[in-house]
Write a structure and sequence with these properties.
about 45% helix, Glycerol-3-phosphate (1)-acyltransferase, 12 helices, seven-stranded mixed β-sheet, three-stranded antiparallel β-sheet, alpha/beta
């Protein structure tokens, strides 16, 4: 129906217009410096943050950090790693994180942009790397972050390999960043891809999942847009060995992608085997 198509196009335009343009200057080192001690204390107490291998990240220059992603729209892995990176390298080192359009445009989350969070697209990513920054990306996106909690230790990018092209074009190394614990911040029951198609948000908002989950204080929830309290799950993150820019330039996307996935899955399996109980760790 032409009327329905017009309505979809209007809704897409309105949502796109509300996505903040990537302005790398919105990252505020002074703000991060002020917030870092209190937030790191919170991460250490509530999530019992354990971040390993930061010395494997090149000490300066642009680098693409590629992680497996967990925890829905309140991903504790991103929260913990961002604080750890800024603590280890100092707030003056430029560091950005890509996030879904809806996350960066939600009211009340402007502080994320002060920490360097920008909308996830190729142009923003290329701009950050060109500026000489470290950039954190999660190729699995909402497909991976909303996977059922019983698949919490599966690394699944849903076939997405665009990050390899990004690294090759920018001439930067890829550093895999493995994490466990985030998918225990709530009980994710279903990705809800069928629900996203039914509601049309896959076309309107580039949102492929409307997850079904159990989380306090609401109990059963449909979608992850309503503020909730993440469970105090133990978050363990481990940086893996870098893949050199020269190796990326000389190999096909499939080869590099398989190497990244193998690195992440091997680390997640090992870190997951250390956990005795869900949430408790």
């Amino acid at each position: 129906m032409p009327g329905f198509s017009d309505a979809l196009e209007w809704a897409k335009h309105e949502l796109s217009a509300r996505v903040p343009k990537a302005d790398l200057d919105q990252r505020d080192a002074d703000y991060i410096r002020e917030q870092l001690p209190g937030l790191w204390l919170l991460a250490s107490l509530y999530f019992r943050a354990d971040v390993r291998g930061l010395d494997r990240i090149p000490k300066d220059g642009p680098v693409l950090l590629v992680g497996n992603h967990s925890g829905g729209n309140l991903p504790p892995d991103t929260f913990v790693f961002t604080l750890a990176f800024c603590s280890y390298f100092g707030v003056e080192r430029p560091f950005y994180q890509l996030a879904h359009n809806l996350v960066v445009s939600m009211p009340g989350l402007g502080s994320l942009r002060k920490f360097g969070t920008v909308a996830a697209n190729h142009d923003n990513a290329a701009l950050a790397l060109k500026s000489g920054a470290a950039l954190l990306v999660y190729p699995g996106g909402d497909y991976e972050v909303f996977r059922p909690s019983w698949k919490r230790h599966e690394v699944d990018f849903d076939g997405r390999q665009g990050y390899v092209t990004l690294a090759r074009e920018a001439g930067v190394p890829i550093v895999p960043v493995a994490s466990v614990g985030g998918q225990e911040a709530a009980l994710f029951l279903d990705r809800g891809q069928w629900l996203a198609r039914l509601l049309g948000v896959d076309r309107i908002a580039r949102l492929k999942s409307v997850p079904i989950l159990l989380a306090p204080p609401w109990g059963l929830a449909v979608s992850d847009m309503v503020p909730r309290l993440p469970l105090p799950t133990k978050i363990v993150i481990e940086v893996q060995d870098p893949i050199d820019a020269e190796d990326i330039a000389a190999a096909d996307d499939d080869v590099i992608n398989d190497k990244v996935l193998a690195s992440l899955q091997g680390a997640v399996d090992r870190l997951g085997a250390e956990r005795r109980f869900p949430v408790i760790g």
